[in-house]
Amino acid sequence: MIDETNLPKHIAIIMDGNGRWAKLKGKNRVFGHRNGTEAVHKVVEAAARMQIEHLTLYAFSTENWNRPQQEVSTLMDLLIRALRRELNKMVKNNIQLKSIGDISKLPTEVEKELIDTINKTRDNDGMILTLALNYGARQELTQAMQQIASKVKNNIISPENVDETIINKHLYTQNLPSVDLLIRTSGEQRISNFLLWQIAYAELYFSEVLWPDFNEKHFEEAITSYQKRERRFGKTSEQLIS
Ligand code: IPE
Ligand code: IPE
Ligand code: MG
Fold first, then answer.
1. Quick one: which of 27, 118, 184, 229 could link to 14 by a disulfide (CB 3.0–4.6 Å)?
2. Ligand number with the minimum distance to the CA of 190
3. Strand, helix or coil for residue 132
4. 16 lines ligand 1 (CB under 6 A)
5. 10-residue block means of pLDDT along the chain (242 residues)?
6. Which one is catalytic: 16, 35, 93, 180?
7. Which ligand places an atom closest to the C-alpha of 184?
8. Is residue 68 a part of any domain in this protein?
């Protein structure tokens, strides 16, 4: 049973295993990605129903451009279609869409559809659903450092004032809280350049389930596991109890 008084405020998911799921079924990778969008739908609905405040999904990394061109263009296509299909449901469920990553490098139609959907959901004040697209944590930190360096050079900030708050303000996630729970599916236990700064104190949850098979039940299991953990933030267990 989920304890509604102890929900993670921000859940981030590395949705992995579409290709292997398809291969197991003797199908091509694209088939896996198409079915992966069904899992996205289920998890988003479940999170909104549970009143999770922030859900951030890793949809396309800066490294994913290195995949076969055919696969990349199919992924972009699926994204446009999913945005169109989900818009009404996002409005109905009061979900606000956002994105992190350098979306200016996405194909023009994808960028346009994305901005359009973001604008159409901007007045919703329920769950904030953030899609990481052309996102890489090193790229994010690099562009933050460039911006800060330029402000220091132009005397807008002095070096000794560069602190965690200032760094946060230059990240794509500037308006998001730190990640409380990071889930990765498909049995891989790595971060793959996702939210390095923001997961500093996240609880990590690795599921063996391949993404297209991931459903509400698995999502709830991840939250239940999170709720059994003691988040100490450097303190002792005794300190937390008193
Ligand atoms: C995750 O599934 C989807 C994206 C990275 C876009 P994969 O496509 O990485 O599936 P596997 O890891 O090859 O099974
Ligand atoms: C991470 O998955 C990126 C996304 C889920 C979008 P990958 O499947 O690309 O990660 P690696 O390459 O196996 O680490
Ligand atoms: Mg993968």
1. 184
2. 2
3. strand
4. yes
5. 96 98 98 98 97 98 98 97 96 97 98 98 98 98 98 98 98 98 98 98 98 98 98 97 88
6. 16
7. 2
8. yes
Whether 16 is a known active-site residue: answer yes
According to DSSP H, which parts of the chain are helical? 18-24, 29-49, 69-92, 108-120, 137-153, 164-169, 216-227, 237-241
Q: Whose CA is nearest to atom 3 of ligand 2?
A: 61
Supply the range of the domain harboring residue 78.
10-136+178-230
Structure tokens at 23: 């291969």
Considering its fold, how many domains does the chain have in total? 1
pTM over 0.85: yes
In this predicted structure, what is the pLDDT of residue 1?
87
User: Do the domain assignments include residue 17?
Assistant: yes
Given the residues 28, 64, 124, 215, select the one marked as catalytic. 64
The three-point CA angle 15-144-9 to 5° equals 45
Q: Look at residue 52 and tell me if it is in a domain.
A: yes
Question: What's the CA-to-centroid distance between 41 and ligand 1, angstroms?
Answer: 17
Does residue 74 lie within any of the structural domains?
A: yes
Q: Kindly report the CATH number assigned to the domain that includes residue 17.
A: 3.40.1180.10
What's the alpha-carbon Rg for the chain, to the nearest Å?
19
